[in-house]
Amino acid sequence: MTGKERVQAALEGLWTDRRPVMLHNFMMAAREEGISMKEFGENPQSAARAFIHFTEKYDTDGLLIDVSTAILAGSLGVPVDYPDDEPARTHGSLISSLEEIQDLSPVDVALDEGIQRWLEITRIVKDYFGEDKYIRGNCDQAPFSLASMIRGSQELMTDLLMEPEKVHQLLEYATEAGIQFIRLMAGTGAHMVSNGDSVAGPEMIPPEFYREFAFPYEKILVDEAHRLGLTYTLHICGNTELILEDMVKTGADALELDYLTDIQKIYKHCHSSTLMIGNLDPSAVIKFGTPELVKQLTLELLEIYRDSPRLMINAGCAIPPDTPSENIRTMIETTHRYAVAPNPNAANS
Fold this sequence. Notes:
Blueprint: H1 3-12, H2 26-33, H3 37-42, H4 44-58, E1 62-65, H5 71-75, E2 80-81, E3 89-90, H6 113-129, E4 134-141, H7 143-151, H8 153-162, H9 164-186, E5 192-196, H10 207-227, E6 231-236, H11 244-249, E7 254-257, H12 263-270, E8 275-280, H13 282-287, H14 291-304, E9 311-315, H15 325-337
Helix pairs in contact: 2-4, 4-6, 7-8, 7-9, 9-10, 14-15
């Protein structure tokens, strides 16, 4: 089977010859290619080569094309730094009060060079692998997290209590940016799109705020992806136990979840309907753990999901750049050797 076929089967709840693997690896890919994060973000050809070489070296089933968590915000005018050895990052906010929403420029993210470079990386990778590997084009921040960059995280938390209606106006603005990026990504040939919305997690806001201010706008992006014929992944860092059921209800085809979320709770909510991507600890296990620990925890995850095909092995978030190659190989080889269900054509119910 091809990598694309394995991932597609897992999304549909079908057993295959082995579990698929797709890694959140852009920083490690750049490091192994010997290029700085600045070059990675500014040179699509270099970044694409890094993704291609990493995929071929470790025999993953697909690629997550990611660049940073700040490019979409930068396309709207939020100040962004571009360090040599770290992904781009925002500094400061775009507006000092919600009254300034009406003064924001109309959204047109296609004009931004960073967005276009991101899209070009995806096109190059897709042209190279064709339909052999599953291509996930990440589309940066979901609306709530993007709004926190436009307004400032602390200020937005106050606004949620003091000016909720105007917060919704800001979220509508951020959602338009997300929709535009997804539409542009669809033109690259990517099979899946995704967004991160970690500022909307329970470690930042109460679950009821998630349901009012994040969930509706995440769902708009999911619906737009489906309208375009693409599958969709939602990623939220931290312990998402209190909103897992809501995240499933967005209609996302897959959830990329952090190690802080209890895997038994993930299994309960996702195993029959939603692909789980994750959820090994990228730092304590994947980076700092021994190969023996990586193998042990990978097997534990595989065992918990032994009765469901809706699992794709990954770290729970971005893999650090200086992760030992041996640990990545151990995680993947352990997954490849693990016996799947005896009937490879049986759908999970």
